[in-house]
Design a protein that fits this description.
CATH class of the largest domain: Mainly Alpha
Distance between the termini: 28 Å
Shape: globular
CATH topology of the largest domain: Glutathione S-transferase Yfyf (Class Pi), Chain A, domain 2
Number of strands: 4
Strand order of the largest sheet: 2-1-3-4
Strand content: 5-15%
Order of helices and strands: EHEHEEHHHHHHH
Number of helices: 9
Length: 211
């Protein structure tokens, strides 16, 4: 089958696209405008009433939320070993980091990029953004400490969690007052390895210097 992915650059859909490349699946991108205030397309709203990407469409239906899609694809294609099996002791840690990234870290980024979602008055936006930046610093420090001297997020084994980590690292922005990636040496060591993967080079050509 061919998967369909409601997609936009600089969104969590890029991480899902990397997973699809890693598991060598045919897919079609449905380019989606998520930056303008225009009403979302009926096609998108039919599969995600929140009007957000990513949404993965497959033969039996559709699924949204990046962490859920990543888990779904890893479990559906276990031969690529991007996630520990359900019986694997590392499974809990895998799920822990997926949920941490998709909830805590992504929420902190939203505070800095979309302060209107957290405050009614525009005058409060700078305060929300400042708090988001503080939150990002604390959360990235947690991740950096957890990696320590391990090769990957799960220790010796590369997984979809490392792809998710890389995706989120690309959202750090000096213009928004975010902490610099260089402040987190262990995170940077992992992302420096992830960026060399062919799947990532294809999805992030501007970061990888690929054509």
């Amino acid at each position: 089958m061919t998967y369909q992915l409601f997609y936009a650059d600089r969104s969590a859909a890029q991480g899902v696209r990397v997973i699809l490349e890693e598991i060598d699946q045919d897919y079609r991108l449905i380019e989606t405008d998520i930056k303008s205030d225009r009403e979302r397309s009926p096609e998108l709203l039919a599969v995600n009433p929140n009007g957000l990407v990513p949404v993965l469409v497959f033969e039996e239906g559709a699924i949204y939320e990046c962490g859920a899609i990543v888990t779904f694809l890893c479990d559906r294609h276990p031969e690529y070993q991007l996630a520990p099996a359900v019986s694997d002791p590392q499974r809990g840690l895998f799920l822990q980091w997926l949920f941490f990234f998709s909830s805590a870290l992504q929420n902190a980024f939203s505070m800095t990029y979309r302060p209107n979602r957290f405050a009614t008055l525009e005058s409060a936006y700078p305060s929300v953004q400042q708090q988001g930046c503080k939150r990002l610093l604390a959360l990235w420090q947690v991740v950096d400490h957890a990696i320590a001297d391990s090769l990957w997020m799960l220790g010796e084994s590369f997984s979809a969690v490392d792809i998710y980590l890389f995706m989120l690292s690309t959202w750090l922005s000096d213009d928004c007052g975010h902490p610099a990636l260089a402040e987190f040496a262990n995170v940077m060591r992992v992302t420096d390895k992830v960026v060399k993967r062919p799947s990532v080079r294809k999805v992030y050509p501007s970061l990888c210097g690929a054509n």
